[in-house]
């Protein structure tokens, strides 16, 4: 998101004393952009904010010339629409009505509209390196890749955002950039169709890094473009990645230690402000481990907004029954990772590490 636009939203939030912060105003703008025209009541419902709060936001945006009201609802001005798309990077289109969404609340191939995207994801998935089980890798299915894209879209994770993937053996970073996805869900800005978001990937596996960078360079027609960098989560998070992203995505090792470390690193990569979002995939574990994970998330300054059991399906991952839940977290204020970003980690981490320790 453009730095000036971010500052503009922050000023409005401060001026009207908005508890939801700048992210609350951005939600209103994204929902209105997706629908083109909305009533105050529907806008409040879609953003899950009280109508009087939404009305305050709308009044200020109208005063500033971004929006206007008429008898049919709330709309963008022409200049407001141009500013939103060109400067803020907000260009996503609405989803279709949900048909058989399998309890996720997300559309699943409505009227066959995703056939091109599904084929592109199947092709992409076939190029991923084999899973390295020593790193707890298990590649998700192409269907899960599609569901993840729709979930990210539903949570406004791709509208003018900076996104961090900590580990990406699934190639989700590339899936976000596929032309077939952008054609279905985003308004093109120009002939080159610049991405409305930026992506960074930190990955320990060189095969994954090379694959991601090669595909990104091909998609962007830029042989020098690199988004995947070498990083071992056991090392401190580099300064340049700390508190710089709006969205984080992890599918961490299957252990509590692995979850804690990866969660700490990705949390420290997010902007330390309300509304930063984190998508966490993890297996269906016992109630004691689930409670410990939830305590870590809440104590770190996050709210658990959505949990979808069985969301992720894997080609491998027998240890977690070839499936896992996905959790959507939203920062509620000051982010405090359980392991500070400048602190290293020397303990056991992956499942095989624990097996080796137990057997010796």
Low-confidence stretches: none
CATH level 4 superfamily of the largest domain: Vaccinia Virus protein VP39
Alpha-carbon distance between the two ends: 51 Å
The whole-number mean of residue pLDDT values reads 90
CATH fold field value of the largest domain: Rossmann fold
Helix and strand composition category: alpha/beta
Total count of strands: 10
Strand order of the largest sheet: 6-5-4-7-8-10-9
| The number of domains | 2
Tally the helices.
13
Any idea what the radius of gyration is? 20 Å
What is the annotated CATH architecture of the largest domain? 3-Layer(aba) Sandwich
Keywords:
single chain; 360 residues; alpha/beta; Arc Repressor Mutant, subunit A; Rossmann fold; 7-stranded mixed β-sheet; 3-stranded antiparallel β-sheet; 13 helices
Summarize this structure briefly.
With 360 residues, the chain is of the alpha/beta class. It has 13 helices and ten strands. It has two domains: 84 residues, Orthogonal Bundle (Arc Repressor Mutant, subunit A); 247 residues, 3-Layer(aba) Sandwich (Rossmann fold).
Architecture overview:
The protein is α/β, with parallel strands linked by helices and 360 residues long. It folds into two domains: 3-86, Arc Repressor Mutant, subunit A, CATH 1.10.10; 110-356, Rossmann fold. Helix content is 41%, strand content 15%. The chain contains 13 helices and ten strands. Strand 7 (247-250), helix 11 (256-269) and strand 8 (277-282) form a beta-alpha-beta unit. Helix 1 packs across helix 2 (21-35), helix 2 (21-35) packs across helix 3 and helix 6 packs across helix 7 (142-154). The radius of gyration is 20 Å and the shape is globular. The relative contact order is 0.11.
């Amino acid at each position: 998101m453009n730095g000036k636009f971010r500052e503009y939203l922050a000023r409005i939030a401060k001026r009207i004393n908005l508890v939801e912060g700048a992210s609350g105003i951005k939600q209103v703008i994204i929902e209105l952009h997706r629908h083109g025209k909305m009533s105050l009541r529907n806008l409040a419902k879609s953003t899950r904010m009280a109508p009087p709060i939404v009305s305050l936001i709308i009044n200020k945006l109208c005063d500033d010339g971004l929006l206007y009201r008429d008898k049919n609802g709330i709309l963008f001005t022409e200049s407001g629409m141009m500013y939103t798309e060109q400067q803020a990077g907000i260009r996503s289109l609405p989803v279709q009505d949900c048909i058989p969404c399998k309890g996720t609340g997300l559309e699943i191939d409505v009227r066959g509209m995703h056939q091109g995207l599904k084929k592109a994801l199947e092709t992409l998935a076939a190029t991923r390196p084999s899973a390295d089980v020593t790193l707890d890798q298990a590649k998700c299915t192409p269907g899960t890749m599609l569901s993840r894209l729709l979930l990210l879209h539903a949570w406004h994770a791709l509208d003018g955002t900076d996104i961090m993937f900590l580990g990406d053996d699934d190639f989700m970073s590339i899936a976000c950039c596929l032309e077939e996805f952008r054609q279905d869900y985003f308004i093109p800005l120009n002939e080159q169709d610049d991405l409305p978001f930026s992506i960074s990937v930190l990955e320990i596996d060189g095969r994954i890094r090379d694959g991601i960078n090669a595909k990104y360079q091909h998609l962007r027609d830029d042989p020098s473009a690199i988004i995947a960098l070498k990083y071992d989560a056991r090392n401190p998070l580099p300064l340049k990645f700390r508190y710089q992203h709006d969205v984080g995505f992890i599918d961490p090792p299957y252990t509590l230690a692995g979850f804690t470390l990866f969660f700490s690193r990705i949390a420290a990569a997010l902007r330390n402000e309300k509304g930063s979002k984190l998508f966490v995939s993890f297996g269906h574990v016992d109630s004691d481990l689930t409670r410990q994970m939830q305590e870590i998330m809440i104590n770190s300054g996050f709210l658990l907004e959505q949990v979808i059991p069985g969301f992720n399906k894997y080609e491998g991952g027998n240890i977690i029954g070839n499936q896992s839940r996905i959790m959507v977290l939203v920062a509620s204020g000051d982010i405090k990772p359980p392991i500070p970003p400048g602190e290293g980690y020397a303990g056991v981490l992956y499942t095989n590490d624990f097996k080796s320790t137990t057997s010796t």
